[in-house]
């Protein structure tokens, strides 16, 4: 990822922690909730891997193509699962945004790659993705408030089944997506 090293590592830590909690969420809940948590875990760990600062390690030339293939597959899976719920459409948009960022960072593919540290990508598409994710972050933040208040009144709930933590993970990944898109 382009940009300063310290914020890059903070983004890596945030995304890895979110992916780890999503793995924990896969142990409880309904099959559809476990499936959504699995998609979010892939997104969290993938975002963590892509956010590693370029100043720290120079990725092998094939890694950005691998990211595009993995997230392209995740997007197709999310589109297939979107028949049963709108949240999977968000997963599809997020996965396609990751494909876009991987291709924009690809040297010689219109993007600047890690070596140049200059912006690449299509400004209109980047702007649309930024607006979408900003809207998602705002709506997730608003939805988090009533869930936290309702969770405080209930009894003991397992860590993997806490709705306010799941929403907080979605919010943090949305913020991380915004931070990554700004660097494109």
Instruction: Give the topology string: H per helix, E per strand.
Output: HHHHHHH
Radius of gyration, taken over Cα atoms and rounded to an integer in Å: 17 Å
Termini Cα gap: 9 Å
How many independent structural domains?
A: 1
Unreliable segments (pLDDT under 50, ≥5 consecutive)? Answer: 110-118
- Could you describe the largest sheet, including whether it forms a barrel? none
**Average pLDDT for all residues:** 81
Strand content is: under 5%
User: In total, how many beta strands?
Assistant: 0
Helix content: over 70%
Count of individual helical segments: 7
**Helix-strand makeup class:** mainly alpha
Shape: globular
Task: Provide a brief overview of the structure.
The chain is mainly α and 184 residues long.
Structure in words:
This protein is mainly alpha-helical and 184 residues long. The chain has one domain (5-182). The protein is built from 7 helices and no strands. It has helices at residues 5-25, 31-50, 63-81, 87-105, 113-116, 123-153, 163-182. The chain is globular, with a radius of gyration of 17 Å. It starts with a helix and ends with a helix.
Chain-wise SSE layout:
Blueprint: H1 5-25, H2 31-50, H3 63-81, H4 87-105, H5 113-116, H6 123-153, H7 163-182
Helix pairs in contact: 1-2, 1-7, 2-3, 2-4, 2-7, 3-4, 6-7
Which properties best describe this structure?
single chain; 184 residues; 7 helices
